[in-house]
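User: I'm curious whether this sequence folds into something compact or stays loose and floppy. Could you predict its structure so I can see for myself?
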Amino acid sequence: MYVTARTNYAMRALLAMAAAGPEPISAPALAEAEQMPFTFLQTILGELRRSRLVVSQRGHDGGYRLARPATQITVGEVVRAMDTTFVSADDTAHPPGQRPASGAAAHLEQLWRAADTALRRVLDETTLDDLTQGRLPAHVRALADPAPQTTIQID
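Assistant: Here's the prediction. I'll summarize afterward.
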């Protein structure tokens, strides 16, 4: 999966907010702590606010905080808010003017749908809280673990 810089920075910012709890974090402090370009972060925070994932608070003790508890914000929501190219395989299965695959490639669309479903399941079933607590869902951990190496012994 290709993750854009925008999405990666948005996730890092949200995870820092999740770790901070209900206290707001100022944009300059967040940029410094996460080593992000400040102007880029400001744009991202604006998009996260418009997507209702964060709220901003003005004033001396102002800053940004999560709009909902970290247990209720999924990675999938963040990816969809930040990455407009994250579309379903169903949306790309039959581009205008193209016919469905046939012959040896007849099952290709089924494969794309399965991959899309697996990706969405991982992202939509993992919350910010899961990441900050270091406890990914079991099926996500299983997918993330490297496959056991098989060795062939020759006598």
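Summary: The CA atoms of residues 4 and 83 lie 7 Å apart. The chain has a mean pLDDT of 85.
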